[in-house]
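hey can u check if this looks right to u? its 234 residues, i copy pasted from the old doc so theres a chance i mangled smth
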Amino acid sequence: MSEKLVKCKTCEKEISTDAKSCPHCGDPDPTSENKKTLKSCLGCFAVLVIGSMIFSTIMVLIDENKNKTSSSEKEIPQGSEKIAELPLDAKEFINNFNESMKTLDSNRNIKARIKDEDDNGSQLTMQVETNNQHIGMVLSANRQNRILRSATLIATGDGSSKSGVDIIFGLAAFVMAFEDPLMPVNERKGVVKDLGVTDNRLIDQGKVRFERKGIKYSVIFYESTGTWLTATPT
């Protein structure tokens, strides 16, 4: 008798009904039907609204980053310890994110690139776009060596299951970019769990915070503007 297959509730790829976890996305409970996943909750706006919303929120972040960096650097006396930084420069992070997306699902072919950057005299703020209308990013970096000081992924769905899965993969790829773009499935389970995606913590609580390998992550779900995932140094 042939093995019965069902679709994973997170990535929608076919898996065995006996699977303890999804071999594709790492969901620890892929066949559960009584748990809502992020894909059913992230859709907020029509497609035309998504583009303008992501662009406007990116512009807000740019202004806030300018003000925060400007004030914080004024308080640091000359010769004191430099501002904490993440372990990657902007180019390395973008390359790792693209590789992580390929690892998660090469068929989706989601890729990121730096669209624009602003130098306020103390740091660089970069607007990152992807070829997926639901995902964008903002990076702040040291203006001399382009090492990242913070990174934020902004994801807004359109109510479809496809946009929800794209967002889940984007969140996972964001974390994998800092750790291992080729992360095996069994390790991805920990990423998915920390993000609060499969157990509804993100939807129920609206905010999830965790720390992995010297990086602090904050995930916030807004009904109006979607999901924001930010990484900063510890």
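The first strand starts at residue 5 and ends at 7.
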